[in-house]
Amino acid sequence: MNSKGLIKKYNVPAPRYTSYPPVPFWNNQINRDSWEDSVKKSYLLYGEEEGIQLYIHLPYCESLCTYCGCNKRITTNHKVELPYISTVMKEWDNYLTILPKKPLLSGIHLGGGTPTFFSPEALKLLIKHIRNSTKLKTDAEFSFEGHPNNTTEEHLQALYDVGFRRVSYGIQDFDVNVQKAIHRMQPYTNVERATRQAREIGYTSVNFDLIYGLPHQTQGTIRDTFKKVSVLRPDRIAFYSYAHLPSVFPAQRSFEEHLPDEAAKRDLYETGKTLLAEMGYLEIGMDHFALSEDPLYKAKLEGTLHRNFMGYTTMPSKILIGLGNSAISDVYLAYAQNEKKIETYKAHIVAGTSPIIKGHSHTETDLKMKNLIMALICNHEATWEPGFTPFSQPQWNHPLRTFEEEGLISFDLEGIRVLEKGVTFIRNICMALDPCFKEEDMEKPVFSKAI
């Protein structure tokens, strides 16, 4: 089957595998006591050496980007800043009573929403509070997501002063018609200014997020966007597939009739990927590209790449604690997600009760499958975990044999390898190995299409 035929066949809803099991298959066998026990146990096993990472969800935006699938709250009232920051600090203080002693911190990532909705002073207050209560790992990495329109020099300097060296700008597309359709107007001059100021201050890594499959995108617009990107030359680029889920995000209905069809969307990706290669960017993994001197690419070559809810990372920490409404934590032994509604989340923290709305406690089988799938997504090869080979479980034979016949993978008694032709279909390959999709009703989960 040719590549277009394979794309048509495998462009079906599939998890992105930022976690295993995927969120819709969590067992929700988590309560406050079991979660705290998992945090303590994980820190004792891994934290003293690897440290912990923090993801802090900052949900506010001044306007709605209609393509967006993130948890956000639209407001122009900046009086919400300090009450929210105070709640996050209190949540962190609660974790400090759980952890055995002053914890080792390996990284912080500020996501949203729009973290730069918050003032430089509010952000600095939050980070200083966390830093004063932790020991900082020598190679700790601090990063944040910035909107080029409102990331000021003051934001960049304030965050640099408390340890941030990486910034990710949500560009999506430079074409004016595309920006109008997705309600995210940001002139090139704003992106150029924000990028230049970050580098002048001393940031060592600038990332651009771009999306293909947006309304009004054409071969011409995507080429023009990448031409502008090549001038600014960020260190890393995330080139995401637009996930159209209007039943979940109703604002996406506003531009449905202007979306490229599946074939045109795939052509946009192939054009972008070709242009990235011509510009010197190398593929890291699903949707991610970096320059050859970037630590992310070096980790890829050395087989030390990792992946968590924030994407690919060089940090080996198995403990990621999420703070803020809707934030997800991964302490290797278990997952937990906070209440999504801001008011409910704040009420729990103020009352001293757990803000966790759902979670998952891993079985030994889960951990084996998690290791297998994460190895495939990061390194495109994996050794079979005990009890997980296509020869010991006959139900796996058919999908793996089909992928093998199509030239997408190779496998034997020792392990499995994703071939170059199969990288495009990595989500499908992982899904075929995932026992969740043999035990559950496939009509219930909602996933974006794989390609």
Describe this structure in words.
- There is one protein chain.
- The protein is an alpha/beta fold and 451 residues long.
- It folds into 2 domains: 1-21 and 363-451, Orthogonal Bundle (Arc Repressor Mutant, subunit A); 22-361, tm_1862 like domain (pyruvate-formate lyase- activating enzyme, Alpha-Beta Horseshoe), CATH 3.80.30.20.
- The chain is built from 15 helices and 19 strands.
- The strands form 5 sheets. A 9-stranded mixed sheet has the order 9-10-8-7-6-5-4-1-13, with helices on both faces.
- Helix 3 runs parallel beside helix 4.
- It starts with a helix and ends in a 12-residue tail after the last helix.
- The mean pLDDT is 92.
- Radius of gyration, in Å, reads 22 Å
Largest sheet: 9 strands, mixed
What percent of the residues sit in helical stretches (DSSP H or I)?
25-40%
Q: How many independent structural domains?
A: 2
Specify the CATH class of the largest domain.
Answer: Alpha Beta
What is the multimeric organization of the chains shown? single chain
Structural class: alpha/beta
SS strand fraction = 15-25%
Average pLDDT over all residues:
92
Fourth-tier CATH superfamily name of the largest domain = tm_1862 like domain
- Quote the distance from N terminus to C terminus: 17 Å
The number of distinct helices, counting runs of at least 4 residues, comes to 15
Number of strands: 19
Q: pLDDT below 50 for ≥5 consecutive residues: which ranges? A: none
